[in-house]
Request: fold
Amino acid sequence: MRRFLNYCAIPVVAMFGVYFSFAASTVNAGDVKKIYKDTCELCHGADGKGSEAGKQFGVPDFSNPDYQKSRTDAQMKESMTNGTKNPNYVKLSDLGVDIADLDALVTVVRGFGGK
Ligand code: HEC
Reply:
């Protein structure tokens, strides 16, 4: 039982974090929301659509359902870990983001796409 609880804790916390970020702006998914705000918003915008600077770099619109459908979680993680063909894209390790936060960050990114 104890092991089961430990195993479930991370995804449950991540899901609630995304839920609360829409219900109210409570920071709850560990520090992931904060990481997004501090590190990602600069290019991806608070709403995931992309900031002015981000658009010039060529960021995708995370709120676009077609974009969300076009990428699997694995593809997103691959881009975040190793970078992409786009020379403006900075892989997350170069932004000082812990690779351990990758799954939770994908959940945040998915959250912008609605359902
Ligand atoms: C310096 C600007 C910049 C910052 C900061 C930034 N990104 Fe991006 N991001 C980009 C660009 C540009 C692309 C588009 C890359 C491409 O299309 O090849 C992108 C694409 C992505 C994608 C989509 C990858 C795919 O395969 O479709 C994800 C997911 C992503 N970023 C997550 C993040 C997260 C999470 C953070 C914060 C930890 C972050 N980004 C910070 C510029 C940035």
